[in-house]
Amino acid sequence: MRKNARWAQCGAGAVLSFNVDESDRAVLPRKSGIRDQASTPTTALMTNFAVLKNKIIQTQDLSAIGSLDILFPFLCIIISPAASGPITALALRSVTDFLLYDIIPKDYPNYAIALQEISSTATQCRFEASDVAQDEVVLLKVLNLIDALVNSSACQYLSDKNILDLLDTAISLSYQARLSEVLRRSAEQVIALIGRYLFTLLQDIDPADNKKDNIMLHEPKSTANSDESYANVTHELASEVTDDTLTSLDTASKTLEPPHRLPSVVQFLIIMTDIVDTRNPQHTDQARAMSLRVLNSSLASGGEYVAKHSSIAEIAANSLAKNLFQLTKSNSPVLLPATLKLFGTLIEVIPAYLKLQTEALLEYLISCVQIDAAIPYSREIDLSAFAEVGLTVSVSASTKPKDNSSRVGTPAPRAETNIRPPDAKETIIEFIAYYLQNPVTAPQLMINYDSDPSRKDLFSRLLSVLCRNTLPDAAEWSTPNVPPICLDSLLSQIVYFLKRLPSLGDTSSSELYADVENRYNEKRHLLYFASQFDVKPSVAINFGVEKGLLPEDYTDSHLVSLLKSTPGLNKKKLGEFIAKPGNESILDAFVADFDFSGLRIDEALRWFLSSFRLPGEAQQIDRIVDSFAKHYYDSSQGDGKIANPDAAGVLSFAVVILNTDQHNPQIKNKMTKEQFKSNLRGMNNGENFEPEFLEEIYHTIKSDEIIMPEERSSDAGFEFIWNELVSASKSESIIPFISLSSKDATFDKFTFSKFSKPVITAMVYVFASATEKSVFERIMAGFDMLCELSQAYNSPEICDFIITAVSKLSALGGDERFDPQHNVTIIAQDGSKLTVSDASITLGRNPRMQTSLYIIFHILQHHSGALNKSWYRIIRILSVLYANSFLPCDAPTTVQEIYGLSPMMKPSTQFVIDRRSSKEGGLFSALSSYLSSAVADEPEPTEEEVESTLVSLDCISSCNISEVFAILCDLKEPKRVSSLIDGILKEALRIWKMCTTSRSDKPSEHGPDSSSAISTANVEAPLMKAKTEFIERIYVPVLSFLIDLIVNVVWRFTGELPEETYHKLMKSFLLFSSDSSDLGKSLFSRCVVGMIVFLRLMKETQRMELEQEMTAVLVSVIPGTTNRSYEESMKAILSLFSTTDFSPEIPLSMERRPIIDRSSSPSSSKDSESNGSDNSSIRVCVQATELLGVLAQKASLLEGNSGNGPLSLRYLWNTYLMHVSKILVKHSASPCREIRLAALNCLRLLLISPAPVSDVQIVDDVEWSIVFSDLLFPMVQNLIDPAAVKLDRSEIGESRTTAASLLSRTFLQYVTTRKPDAEAASIWLKMLELMAQLISDNQQDLLEESIKETLKNTCFVLINAGYLSINEGESVDGSSALWKQTWTKLEAFMPALRQELQNSGNESNE
Fold this sequence. Notes:
The N and C termini lie far apart (174 Å). By secondary structure, the protein is mostly helical.
């Protein structure tokens, strides 16, 4: 060891700035236990090892020696200033190894005392200094020993004092600026280790130890300067090194201190909190940064157990949070991040203790980074959703700062955005993003702040900051890193919602959910009440009554309670309102709501004036102060120092005047204390106020201005606000903080509904201005996740919002019009066609539009169940694509194939460039192409435009449009199908309006004879012709496409649509089909088919009334059929009748009714009412049957009936009308009388009308035989069927009579145009057999006579026409055999007929 004078006072004092007296060195030989003159500290230390060696040799059992005896020699070296650095380091290493390798078992005697001595020795380490590097090695060994102590199981035996001594030592070393950075960092790690260890203990400590009696609190030690801080106050044990400590330890005198518990944790927190206190200049920013890092790791280790120990949680929530709040004002790149990170950890571990503190901090941080400039307006984006989070949108380049004068909740220090440097703003934004990384942070903010009427909308405010700073222009106010950070944070929130979807449950039965939702709605009402109160209080009060904020018979007390509890109420307006003339009772009630007992008058006045702003008018001030003084005196009896209410009023005015005098900078000569007392002389009921009383008031007002809390900006103001905040946090009126677990998704849907639209708008805004592929991909993924959440939460409005916003970016689904009038079709040499248009060129040149289009169809294909109101945008895009010949496939054609409609019309272009003819090439071809393009109205597209069109087609092809059509036609939910139909109809009506507008352009107003009129007509005629051609080429095909799409959607739908949807369909299709122009004629057949499909769906869903209405519409439309649409309409109707039986389901009671006297039935009216729905079904069927008859009869009126052309009567009869007749025959045997009669009447019109379709000139013998064999004979046979006999006799008889008449008249029409032949004879004889059956089965005389009369008239006509002979044996064209057979059959059931015919014949001859 070095012994020169230079190192006479070295050791720990040299390193830790502790001085060692020479007297201490002189006494060491004596204290070593070696008494001769040659003894030195070194020999004493070596003697200790010799003694230990002898004990080990002499002892068989080491446990007999004891733990303390084994460690004693090493501990002596560690605390000896005579030992050199290497020796001390070796001793420290040895003791560390004892701990690391458990060399001394725990069952050795004095084990716990030995460990406590190791701890004490480590904090008292002294050695002879040599060089700085070697000295730091020793100090590093000290830190290693402390590390081993804390990390080993032996730490549990250390006392509170031991733990705090170790902490002090580590802090001392970390404060030494002269030490290397490595050593100081090592000391910081040891401090952090101690902190983590202590806070980990909290899970094993009973919270009952929080009682103050059990907690040892120590004031932090003074720190004079950075070099000596904690160095001079560690443990002054060097001067206490005694003889006993170097030679022997009397174990009997050593007492075991209790192990450390909660006091160590509390003291650790106090020490660390004191270091971060900005009011203490003794601590450097470096030390504060160290403390912040240590506290962060320590609190994180404690986790949820910190909140269970109120003594620790209260220190953290009050003292530590207060110091952190002050540190947030720092712009240091080291302090600010560490401070915010620690505050984030605090919020995580003790949220219930920090509800108001969190609000104050976040509000302050928001004020630092919020951008008051309005969002730049964008024509492509709907920015209205930003208003939900308080953001403003500019309509021009100018900006409008927001008015934050009226805020809710805890006041926070004001901070303008321009005072914080960009880097600090970026740090704050990073903290906000970090704070929101906890998946439950957003829901917790929503339910604890945005749903708490007394708190600010923190979630909405944070969302506002993130959305605003996500926009590209935010980089101008901060750094370029801020927008990406904010975008990532927003996307992360979406991911958190998505991850908790499996935990989503039913919230309908949750009382907490209902309570939060009610409070949220109440807060919205209160905020609206506050906004209206600023404008007109009477309107606000009426609103309060309407929303239940006030009872209908409210009193002044009710109103005052509402005014005081309304968040964000303008205090200036409140002061004017209560002081307004006529509101005296409200003012008295407002004042009476305060309890001033126990308060001095200036204290009461300060509290009273903090609730509103005193108005400026003198009379209003008088009213307020007088009311206050009266109530103050009544509630406190003047505090024993005020004589009466008048004296209280005078003193109140004096306090107000004094406050203005002392704190108004414009007043130079301030009022003195004596002047204040002099002004009040004799004002206390003729007496003077007590001087001490007035002096206290004077000094209080002079030192502390009566001012609104939010207007305080100094340190004193901060102290006042913070104290008020801490006091308010302990109030029972504060709604407790609601904590959620990481998997609790109870409030996710509630939060998502308020979160989604502003975020979507921000994402769309970024998407619109982004140029990087990675940004596109991230936003696309975000949209996909949002749609998945929308579907899971059953919130289709979110997905609709995305579709609407993105479709505007795609331009195809927005309000822009891509007029296809300038489209050009190019026919390539291989015959393929390519249509180049403005839309294809624009889409091909704009990658953003292509991505938008892909996003829309991707959402449709993967989240169609989440769409509701946005179908119009999708249909709008499909319409534009179809108009510009973009669709790579046709729309669904199921209905067209079933009903035999013509193929879907496709848009055509006016200009076609056929390049097949130019394949020869050569000079002539080039010259011809040039000349043709020069004279053409539309120039040939350039290669660039063609390339852009090809890119557009590739983009559309990637959207998989065929799958889109399949999805549209396979929707199952009635609500979504109805919304889809609404969207298609909206687009169809838009195009229809464009068509009608183009056709209804007003002609020139010039007179018909003027030259101007002639010239104008010459100009207008070509224009009108061009418009008409354009409508035929573009609009008609697009409308046809949309109509077919609707029809196919309805055809495949099997559910029940709302009645409103049916009415819209009927109204729209009637509009499309009723137009007399070429447009209406082109769409007529498709509209008719559509209405028939709707009719089919109505029948399947048993919508009787709608069936009847739709049938009536068809009946009114079909008669207007023209040659162009008749055949398709007929095909559709026949197909409908063949696939859907229009015969109603007749109840058994109606099918099998016995013959009764209805007039005598007492229940007839009741039966009629009960069969109302059946009657409706009957009416529908009757109308449908009549519709067939109308269509059939209409055939004879069509143009072109002559010959054998496509619309000849022969063609129509064979193709359609025969099928119609068969349907009518089927209905002629219906159990329902109305249907039978309608069918028979339609057959009559079809077969025997004045201009019958079945005219003899177009129906040959074979067809006539089919008329009787397949139509008339089955008709009569069905009515003779036994099943028909069971019906009401009167009804079936009437039908039989009608059928007999129809049969006879048809036969007469047939036979009068032909010569008698075998076929006619066969028909006649079959008819006689059926007539015989009809007569024999009729039991009613009247009906029997009617049928006989019909047959008699038929025979008479045949006789007069020469087909039959009355006299037996006569032959008419060889018909005697026929007559014999006829007469034989007639005599069987009408024996007197022959005589009657003869008599009639004789009379006729005469």
